[in-house]
Automatic annotation (TrEMBL):
Protein name: DUF7282 domain-containing protein
InterPro entries documented for this protein: Slg1/2_DUF7282
Domain DUF7282: 52-173
Lineage: Archaea, Methanobacteriati, Methanobacteriota, Stenosarchaea group, Halobacteria
Listed Acidic residues bias regions: 145-166
Organism: Haloterrigena turkmenica (strain ATCC 51198 / DSM 5511 / JCM 9101 / NCIMB 13204 / VKM B-1734 / 4k)
Disordered: region residues: 144-166
Length: 183
């Protein structure tokens, strides 16, 4: 049996084994390189894709404050509540249905300064109490002058995505109106 292991391998078989071994080593190295490259790309995409977001859900309110459910502000800033103004109507009319056509109206209130990153359950005190249930719009604003004080329109422009302000809308139902309908 020892003699059998001492028999020299034919030259072509030795070259074939060497080629296969080299291919295995090279494919392993290229897979490791591809995995490293893909990881870097994903990390870069996460950084590039960090954009402002705002989530504002339908809710019941006492009319003096509303809650922005979630907002992501890459550089910090403010959650700002706007009235929903009818597109072809009087600026002082209130929009009372999410299916109506409307645009961003007057500022009704803003949060205190929010740190960069994700902020949840942000309470926004309104400048004046709501007198009826209506659609409101939450908008993410930057702190462009870095003073942590909301000063729009002089500063603190909205965050944008595709050249449009980052917003979400919600139907705000007043508690008093809820009580009237349940009686």
């Amino acid at each position: 049996m020892t003699v059998k292991s001492m028999i020299p391998m034919p030259r072509t078989r030795t070259i074939g084994v060497a080629v296969v071994a080299a291919l295995v080593l090279l494919s392993g190295a290229s897979l490791a390189f591809a995995a490293t490259d893909a990881g870097t790309t994903t990390q870069d995409n996460e950084t590039e894709n960090e954009t402002a977001t705002v989530t504002f859900e339908n809710q019941t309110s006492n009319g003096t404050a509303v809650t922005v459910n979630n907002t992501t502000l890459p550089e910090g800033g403010f959650a700002v509540i706007h009235a929903a103004a009818p597109v072809d109507g009087d600026e002082n009319e209130t929009v009372t249905n999410l299916s109506e056509e409307y645009e961003t109206g007057a500022v009704l209130g803003n949060s205190t300064y929010l740190d960069p990153g994700e902020n949840e359950n942000v309470t926004v005190e309104l400048n004046e109490s709501l007198n009826e249930s209506q659609v409101l719009i939450a908008m993410a604003h930057q702190d462009t002058n870095d003073n942590e004080t909301y000063e729009f329109p002089e500063a603190d422009d909205p965050y944008t995505s595709d050249d449009e302000p980052v917003t979400d809308d919600a139907m705000i139902t007043l508690e008093d109106e809820m009580n009237e309908t349940s009686e």
